[in-house]
Design brief:
245 residues, 3 domains, five-stranded parallel beta sheet, elongated, two-stranded parallel ribbon, Rossmann fold, 17% strand, 46% helix
């Protein structure tokens, strides 16, 4: 038995508005006439019900990429890879930078509910996992980062702890016994750095004396990190000078 095709009226009945209003919202016309709640409801219900417009083949061709900043070379490089792969597959990308602002992250999630969006990639672990999990019910979401806890999303997990142990073991294999770790702020906002340090520390602990690990850090605000192009180079240079004294 063929599945009944979902119509604009079906969506309208579910949301509680007219089919003409549903049509306008899905076509992104005169959106200023509708509340954000109504628009989001139409987007969500249309996806949940499996609605396909007459232009379905052209729909959902946009991949939303979310990152805190493009100044950091790490984010710039992985975003470039995402955009290149999307192009190969005939997809367009839209990039949003949140600067770790939770309000901006929320606005991105609202935008991602539009019918033209086929998927969302967070280049970091979202600050509001519960909000992104809700988004994931209507559009596929993938996060890239150091996942320490189950956030309920598909995740490309960067194992920074293992990276730290690999670095330590390599240096130890070369005969080095005095190892220093230089880093900007080590805190919950920068879990990748913390995990790398923990990996280094564990490997050196397992190796035992005379190997030892020294830590040199400099507190740098998140805002400064996001808005200063060469902050890591500046900080690294200053810490290296301290280390060599």
């Amino acid at each position: 038995m063929r599945k009944k095709k979902v119509t604009l009226q079906d969506i309208a009945d579910k949301v509680g508005i007219s089919s003409a209003s549903v049509s306008m919202i899905l076509a992104s016309k005169s959106l200023n006439r509708f509340s954000d709640e109504t628009i989001n409801s139409v987007y969500t219900v249309s996806r949940q019900m499996g609605y396909e417009s007459k232009h379905a083949k052209q729909d959902r061709k946009i991949v939303v990429i979310v990152c805190p900043s493009v100044i950091n070379p790490y984010f710039a490089s992985i975003i470039q890879g995402m955009e290149q792969e999307a192009k190969v597959r005939g997809l367009e990308t839209v990039l949003f930078t949140t600067y770790w602002d939770i309000d901006k992250e929320k606005r991105v999630c609202d935008f991602a509910k539009e019918p033209s969006v086929g998927g969302v990639i967070f280049a970091m672990i979202p600050q509001q996992p519960e909000l992104v999990r809700e988004l994931n019910k209507t559009v596929p979401v993938v996060a890239v980062g150091d996942k320490q806890n189950d956030i309920g999303l598909d995740t490309v997990d960067v194992n920074n702890f293992n990276a730290g142990t690999l670095v330590a073991n390599h240096l130890l294999s070369l005969g080095h016994r005095k190892i220093a770790y230089l880093s900007t702020s080590l805190n919950s906002e920068h879990s990748a750095r913390v995990r790398r340090f923990e990996g280094l520390k564990e490997a050196i602990k397992q190796f035992g004396p005379p190997a030892r690990l020294s830590l040199y850090t400099a507190e740098v605000s998140s805002l400064t990190e996001l808005n200063t192009l060469d902050i890591e180079h500046q900080t690294g240079y200053a810490l290296a000078k301290r280390c060599m004294k």
